Prior knowledge:
- By secondary structure, the protein is of the alpha/beta class.
- It has a single domain (about 15-215), classed as Uracil-DNA glycosylase-like domain (Uracil-DNA Glycosylase, subunit E).
- The chain is built from 7 helices and 5 strands.
Amino acid sequence: MQLDCSAYDPNCRDCSRLAEFLDQVRHQYPAYFCKPVPPFGPERATLLVVGLAPGMHGANASGRPFTGDWCSDLLYGTLYTYGFAKNPRSLSRDDDQALIDCRLTNAVKCLPPQNKPTPAEIKTCSKYLAQEINSIQPKVIVCLGAVAHDAVLSCLVGIDRSIKRSAYRFSHAAVHDVAGIRLIDSYHPSRYNTNTGRLTPEMFSAVFALVRRYV
């Protein structure tokens, strides 16, 4: 199931750079999804996991967040371990994977060049993330990386203008209480972070052990 187009628009072209880049990638890889990637999971969930943006050969190819790329097995395997996923792997948009009281989304719904959305693109896409948070009403949000953290915080500031950003700085395994929601930070499970040891499977598992304290 998907949210209405106030939270996700499959035809969005508001960011011209991203839209034009997707056109180029679609020409190069005609079998790829190459559209804004929809969230995955139930429309109401206690846990919302927010990543940065679709990966070229992962979500952008499959049409499902964190499916088909380097970090897929680590994320879905960890969700499975902690009871948030039906299966330990997400292989394609058409498999029987399902999330349990958990929803996955990205701060930016379209593939950005070099995996780097601009601040303006993040801000433009924030209307979808803000509506999603409002619709889902999660108790806990896991932010995968500093960009996701900042994007979520911006949405919550929109709900409560008294929130001071400086009081909620990104740090791995940090827990923040913001506008009645617990934000839990994690380094992004990217190839670079896992290859360099900045993020280990044990460190990532510990983040979701924290989640289970509150869910």
